Amino acid sequence: xxxxxxxxxxxxxxxxxxxxxxxxxxxxxxxxxxxxxxxxxxxxxxxxxxxxxxxxxxxxxxxxxxxxxxxxxxxxxxxxxxxxxxxxxxxxxxxxxxxxxxxxxxxxxxxxxxxxxxxxxxxxxxxxxxxxxxxxxxxxxxxxxxxxxxxxxxxxxxxxxxxxxxxxxxxxxxxxxxxxxxxxxxxxxxxxxxxxxxxxxxxxxxxxxxxxxxxxxxxxxxxxxxxxxxxxxxxxxxxxxxxxxxxxxxxxxxxxxxxxxxxxxxxxxxxxxxxxxxxxxxxxxxxxxxxxxxxxxxxxxxxxxxxxxxxxxxxxxxxxxxxxxxxxxxxxxxxxxxxxxxxxxxxxxxxxxxxxxxxxxxxxxxxxxxxxxxxxxxxxxxxxxxxxxxxxxxxxxxxxxxxxxxxxxxxxxxxxxxxxxxxxxxxxxxxxxxxxxxxxxxxxxxxxxxxxxxxxxxxxxxxxxxxxxxxxxxxxxxxxxxxxxxxxxxxxxxxxxxxxxxxxxxxxxxxxxxxxxxxxxxxxxxxxxxxxxxxxxxxxxxxxxxxxxxxxxxxxxxxxxxxxxxxxxxxxxxxxxxxxxxxxxxxxxxxxxxxxxxxxxxxxxxxxxxxxxxxxxxxxxxxxxxxxxxxxxxxxxxxxxxxx
Length: 644
Known about the structure:
Blueprint: H1 2-21, E1 29-30, E2 38-40, H2 47-52, E3 63-68, E4 82-85, E5 90-96, E6 116-121, E7 132-135, E8 147-148, E9 152-158, E10 161-171, E11 176-185, E12 188-194, E13 196-198, E14 204-219, E15 222-233, E16 244-250, E17 257-259, E18 281-282, E19 284-291, E20 297-303, E21 315-321, E22 332-333, H3 338-344, E23 353-355, E24 359-364, E25 367-376, H4 378-381, E26 390-398, E27 401-409, E28 413-415, E29 431-435, E30 440-453, E31 456-471, E32 481-482, E33 493-494, E34 498-499, E35 506-513, H5 521-527, E36 536-543, E37 561-566, E38 573-580, E39 585-591, E40 597-605, E41 609-616, E42 623-631, E43 634-642
Parallel strand pairs: 1-18, 2-28, 29-34
Antiparallel strand pairs: 3-36, 4-5, 5-6, 6-7, 8-10, 9-10, 10-11, 11-12, 13-14, 14-15, 15-16, 16-17, 19-20, 20-21, 21-22, 23-25, 24-25, 25-26, 26-27, 27-41, 29-30, 30-31, 31-32, 33-35, 35-36, 37-38, 38-41, 39-40, 39-42, 42-43
């Protein structure tokens, strides 16, 4: 009898583990040196002490907005579930339903975890529409087991009415099967499905991973929507064809046409190396896909770019479209030595630091910013982990110059969830967003804090939400602000992609395990680290950051130092790198041996900090040249060689 019961338990556990596996994100096998921080359980605080703790001055009053079957509506950084659409004046979120029909098969309504709903607000989140069903599993069809996960949403004005477009990876309960795409317009929804396609090279490709980013709008008098993602050759081999990036685009919302732009083909990325012959390895992924104020689309890739193959690390590049996504530019890649120069002040280099998938904001006119989590690799530096470098930094391009600047120090620890959840898919939960007018950037993240009770300090006993801001015309980030300061665990937190220009009443979402009546304090805290089998509240709160914005900085004359020109010799790309304490007027030109100017590299105002300018040399013949850097009536001359 006991053996029979044990056997049944194993069957149930296996069934649940299969279900959980189908919920976890899948980005195939990314060949990147990535690390978001050590996952740890918070310090234990006894029940008696928990009950005696005074209330902390929580500055965000979170209220329940909705409820979910589990946390997997908002649990990957590669989605856009919370957006603000200026032309509609709407704040929008997309989510799955509440009822888990695996656990409650008697439920027969539409509010299930496999369907999708949107809610919108026309007053920055103060009031909300009822949930609107935008995707219902088409039971009885070939797509009757396409269950939505990790959805993304966008919207636009179509003939005077809002048109909501969405995409979401789909699972059948045992694996990922493709993507659900859809439109909700004038009280009707139209769904279609993307799984595999034949490209012009004759090969069959699948949409890989679970990242779901989408935009839409009007192309002339015609509506369109466009989603981007990673693409994998069927079977996962050869590895020369596993790193494609691509898009699917529609104008009739029935057929979505798949395209692999030449600039995004796998040949633009280093071929994955697999000494064991593993398949499905890739060296590219997508870090962002957004419109900017210039009306252009920007796609940010986090990839091992072939153009800088000697660097052999995942890095940051941006491709731009000026025709609503039909054609794309080559990647604008950050200078490879930029991080090295920044890290030297800490006695480090890129070889002993991890970084991870960045957050991305395009500001228009080829200006953009990445928010990057960096962590020292203490297995190489042998420093105690608590003394190692853990930071958020901004990698940016401003007026033609690349740079890197510190945003904040981090603890290096992230919240560990309770099994069966395998990993913290959001890490430190960093986000980079902008005000609607694009004049201010806001960074948000979650980090551990200590709890002091009398003479006792409980290290990393809870976590809070932190923010910092920067005017886009300023050189430095503000002081940081803890916006929650509570004993609750703050996890799975989301800002919309745009926030109010006033920097007041900024909406923020977070998830919270629905508490059980009568549960003691210790069990209640443990329950907040459970995601899979525990229903969740979607909580909404508001906060201000205008108090940390600060005042405008005075301008002064500054010198350039740490000037580097590399590589030398150059082939198709070159980089000029430097450091300055503040903004300088800078001009960079290339002359041939006869003194004739053959290329204008840069002419404009720099920012402050470690910066770099990248330029192409593929239109210059092989030979020796002079690169002249002019600033403050001074000229700095560097000899370069171009050899292709």
